[in-house]
Amino acid sequence: MLEGVVLAGGRGERFWPLSRRARPKQFLPLFGGRSLIAHTWERLRRELAAEGIRVIAGSDLRERVCAELPEMVAERFVPEPVGRNTAPAVAVAAALGLREGDPLQLVVPADHWIPDAEAFWRSARAAAATAAATDGPLVTLGIPIRRPETGFGYIERGEERPEAAGVYRALCFHEKPERERAETYQRAGRFYWNSGIFVWRASALLAELEAHMPELHRLVMTLPGAARPQDLLAGIFERAAGESIDRGLLEKSRRVAVVEAGFAWSDLGSWSSWAELAEADALGTVALGETLQLDCENTLVLSDEGLVAALGVKDLVVVRTGDVTLVVDRERCQDVRRLLAELRERLGAERFL
Amino acid sequence: MLEGVVLAGGRGERFWPLSRRARPKQFLPLFGGRSLIAHTWERLRRELAAEGIRVIAGSDLRERVCAELPEMVAERFVPEPVGRNTAPAVAVAAALGLREGDPLQLVVPADHWIPDAEAFWRSARAAAATAAATDGPLVTLGIPIRRPETGFGYIERGEERPEAAGVYRALCFHEKPERERAETYQRAGRFYWNSGIFVWRASALLAELEAHMPELHRLVMTLPGAARPQDLLAGIFERAAGESIDRGLLEKSRRVAVVEAGFAWSDLGSWSSWAELAEADALGTVALGETLQLDCENTLVLSDEGLVAALGVKDLVVVRTGDVTLVVDRERCQDVRRLLAELRERLGAERFL
After folding, report:
1. Of B310, B323, B343, which is closest to A327 when you measure between CB atoms?
2. What is the pLDDT of residues A121-178, one digit of tens each?
3. What interhelical angle do B36-45 and B117-132 show, nearest 10?
């Protein structure tokens, strides 16, 4: 049995000002007028029943999730009263899974871009076959490196596992590297980007949690035996420490495999990564909404209300939405968070967050 | 007798989107929260009675003018039903002046920046003294060249006139030059920028008009003898050909003098010329309204509604107002007009003009 677990708890600040507290990135209609979470749902639905997909997101976003995913089974929504990063979310999902026959779980972020669902499933099935073995590993999907990106985590692969081609022991996880180190990784040829997509047996994850995150394990193990597990969720998330599953567990566990992903992928980590995927004119400029460009190069211009006119500029991202206009150098999109940090400090600026 | 003539007929498109059809540049509060036309009025009022100042502007702007200049005498407003550039405007003003004792007329654009009214009047009085002589010339104020500007007209001076130091025969007018020629002018030391500020006796202007623009002269000479001259104005403007007084008359007349202006001046021809005058931070960035900048250089950021956030950009002008955001390379501000030309062609874009 394979079930889907959609992690929709992110706040996607780097897509500010289009993303706001009440409309995180996963709800933005960045492709084909549909939200990222709806695309993700559809990708999973290709092979899974609606009953077989859990969605984990902030409690405050329940209505928005329901609106985007009308097929979602209400009981499969896992509300987070507070954001605690990915470790508590996947731990809760595994403990809930344990109640229902210890399924394999395919964990996917809600806000990534994967255009080819068929190719995605070829890789996901390979990962699931690996994870399904007795004492099977926690399997991560590794994305072949395309550039020395400093914003991603990297996975170093070890020897190929015997059961199938393209499945490796995961030797080591590396946090976001400096530029020079990222270039070394790319040249080395045995590194992948960490996609944040995982497949594991619920009990396998819980066993590794017990070894490496015993406190979190103790918290979630109240769920399998509970009469009304949903009543315990708020308390668990509130008590859990915020941590990513990568850092909290996968970096430490020796029971991790990596499957080379055979599909196009982007984490859509910023405006510039999105602009790379959108359709550009001959000078590399992407325009959406009511816009006017003259002599612009390599620029993203987006308006969802009013007009944006750009003249003679290059290497910019310009976004106008509601009561905010953002203008940022395309190479600096990762730093949009710094703007938000400044805004949080500013009296009366909360309406812009 | 000296009277003031304020030319407020311009549309100031280069300050779009802050300037709109219904709010041309002269009505923008670019300095100290007050409009340029109000500053101009105040400058003249330093030495002139309100009764002694005419204001010429589009008929549709009458209410706006009255609101900005509550002191203005209603009969001194000269409405233009259609814009015809400066020659018809100053010709009408002169013909109206002739009815009232043939005054000297100090003609000033409504939308220039001249911070020092006292220095302005020192130059204006010198010009008036020159124009006041029997058969006195048409006097222009020439601005000492500060840079090889290609957006201005230039005046080449001839020999100094005997009546006062700093008063010259005007030898030649030169239209907006190419860069190289502008540099030659600057090096030559006998050229001025044409400020568009003039002093002449009404009858002197009319005499020169008769010689060089006889058709316009014929049209306006219906005014001095008319019982209700205001009833004739619309017909005159409608029939008159659009032409600037510089090109139509001053370039041809041999009765023109130039007085070197002894005051700081800007024609505020574009966003960038305004940015040069506004107060900048250490990196040359000017911010007005609700804005947020991080790591910006030599950039103007202005918002009159909502927030503009700029990150890591340089040499830009960013203006957010109402339903439009403009982003333009600082060196390309002169081309904002090209954006407007494009917008005029676009279906449904009229609300942005």
Report:
1. B310
2. 999 999 999 999 999 999 999 999 999 988 899 999 999 988 778 899 999 998 889 9
3. 60
pTM of the model: 0.84
- What ipTM does the predicted assembly reach? 0.84
B318 to chain A: which residues are within 8 Å by CB?
Answer: 325, 327
Q: What is the DSSP letter of B243?
A: -
Give CA–CA dist B303/B50, Å, rounded: 34
Q: Which residues of B touch A324 (CB under 8 A)?
A: 306-309
**Rounded CA separation A216/A208 (Å):** 11
For chain B, give the mean pLDDT. 94
Q: What is the DSSP letter of A134?
A: T
Distance from the B345 Cα atom to the nearest Cα atom in chain A, whole angstroms: 12
**B317-327, pLDDT tens digit by residue?**
999 999 999 99
Residue B260, token pair as written in the block: 């070197």
Over its C-alpha atoms, chain B yields an Rg (Å, rounded) of 21
Q: How many CB atoms lie within 10 A of CB A162?
A: 6
pLDDT in tens, A290-325: 999 999 999 999 999 999 999 999 999 999 999 999
Outline where chain B has alpha helix (H).
Answer: 36-45, 62-68, 86-98, 117-132, 179-188, 202-212, 214-220, 230-239, 245, 271-277, 336-345
User: Predicted confidence band at B165 (pLDDT cuts at 50, 70, 90)?
Assistant: confident
pLDDT over 90 (residue A185): yes
Residues A27 and B219: their CA atoms lie apart, in Å, by 66
Residue B220 contacts residue B265 (beta carbons within 8 Å): no
B323 contacts A325? CB cut-off 8 A? no
State how far residue B164 is from chain A, nearest Cα, in angstroms: 48
Closest CA to B328 of B21, B41, B16: B16
Q: Which of B19, B293, B307, B334 to mutate to test the interface with A (most CBs of A within 10 A)?
A: B307
CA neighbor of B295 nearest in space, from B287, B303, B283:
B283
Interface test with B, best of A15, A292, A319, A331 (most B CBs within 10 A): A292
User: What is the average per-residue pLDDT within B278-294?
Assistant: 90
Name residues 282-341 of chain B within 8 A of A (Cβ): 292, 294-295, 303, 305-313, 316, 318, 320, 322-329, 331-332, 335-336, 338-339
Query: Is-contact A240 A84, C-beta < 8 A?
Result: yes
Residue A303, class by beta-carbon neighbours within 10 Å (0-12 exposed, 13-18 middle, 19+ buried)?
Answer: buried
Contacts of A17 in chain B (CB under 8 A): 307, 309
The order of strands in the sheet holding A316-321 is A286-288, A300-303, A316-321, A324-329, B307-311, B291-294
Q: What is the spatial distance between Cα B173 and Cα B133, in angstroms, rounded to a whole number? A: 23
At B352, which amino acid appears?
F
Q: Which residues of A touch B322 (CB under 8 A)?
A: 306
